[in-house]
Amino acid sequence: MTMWEDILAQPENLRQVIQRHTENLANAHQQINRLSNQTKGVVFTGVGSGLNATIPASYYLMNHGLFAQSIDTTELIYYLMPGLKDFLLVLNTRSGETAELVRAAKLAKDLNLSTIAVTNEPESTVGRLANFCLPTYSRWDQLVVISAYGGMLASELILSSMRIGNHSQLLKEIQAIPEILESVLAKTITIRDDLGDLIGDSRPIYLLGRGPSLASAHGGALVIEETSRQAVVPMASGLFRQGPIEVVNQRFRAIIFEGGDETAGLSRRLAEDLIEKNCGIVWVGSSELKGALNLTIPHMAAYLLPFLEIIPCQVLAHDLALRSHITPGSVNYIEKVITSEEGIQAKGE
């Protein structure tokens, strides 16, 4: 299985994920209610793609009046765990064996915290240590997380919707995504050469978004760096204006996610101003932007956009690797599962 095959497999994988969640909804809903009813809110934790996939769910819950936060597990386990008393801790890990997530699950057990594992491997260490395990039901990718990312996005959102009793509506919304995903993937493939030419060997590439689209900025940066080994800076576009904008010149290249709700107009204005400065901009949004390379995606709720926004980043990552004579999906320093917190696990070149 190649990375390109992993990219193409995403719509069907997401259909299977949604179907399996639908079939097992009643038991999951009961268990999640049991664990979360007496908690003050939800803290999501993970590393890499496992962390990025929780961002839309945390925004979803906050927007519905329930406190939620996404925290990097590598920091959580050393500095922040005591502050989680009375919160539900959601451990998001594809393998269930990542060193930091295992440590977090053990610490949570010692502190008597309520925990839910969201993992592709229910019988893993984290899956067994948690009070309840919600499987992601996703296929495994070659190495770099591609289709499994959509499975995690869906699983975290479904979990969140059950927490507030809105799962019927959320499932209905997500069920429409696979077909739209196929269309966005096809559109991206038609512009892939222009996308690669515009970004080229830019160092670094900036990925800018707001709200749930921060998942796309950070998730896109991760897949581009892992696959093509090009430096990427993911950032909230509001923060970019507060100093980092001084890096802007005619060589500046960015992918900007329009996002949803009231911040979409702010993202658009920033992109327009950058285009006036002769910067190269890829615009991912529901309406076209003059002077940018456009990937038009449907207008929808902001928390659903990351399913679609990640696609151009994945295709770009694949093609930039080829342009640099790197086999897409090959790596030097990481392993499929990171089972140690120390040093560089694979020595590579």
Characterise the protein shown here.
- The chain is α/β, with parallel strands linked by helices and 349 residues long.
- The protein has two domains: 3-175, Glucose-6-phosphate isomerase like protein, domain 1 (Rossmann fold, 3-Layer(aba) Sandwich); 179-323, Glucose-6-phosphate isomerase like protein, domain 1 (Rossmann fold).
- The protein contains 16 helices and ten strands.
- The strands form two sheets. The protein has a five-stranded parallel β-sheet with strand order 2-1-3-4-5, with helices on both faces. A five-stranded parallel β-sheet has the order 7-6-8-9-10, sandwiched between helices.
- Helix 2 (10-23) packs antiparallel against helix 11 (177-190) and helix 12 (192-199) packs across helix 16 (306-323).
- The radius of gyration is 19 Å and the shape is globular.
- The model has no long low-confidence stretch (mean pLDDT 94).
CATH architecture of the largest domain: 3-Layer(aba) Sandwich
- CATH homology group of the largest domain: Glucose-6-phosphate isomerase like protein, domain 1
Give the number of helices: 16
Write down the domain tally: 2
CATH topology assignment of the largest domain: Rossmann fold
By secondary-structure content and strand pairing, the structural class works out as alpha/beta
Q: What is the averaged pLDDT score?
A: 94
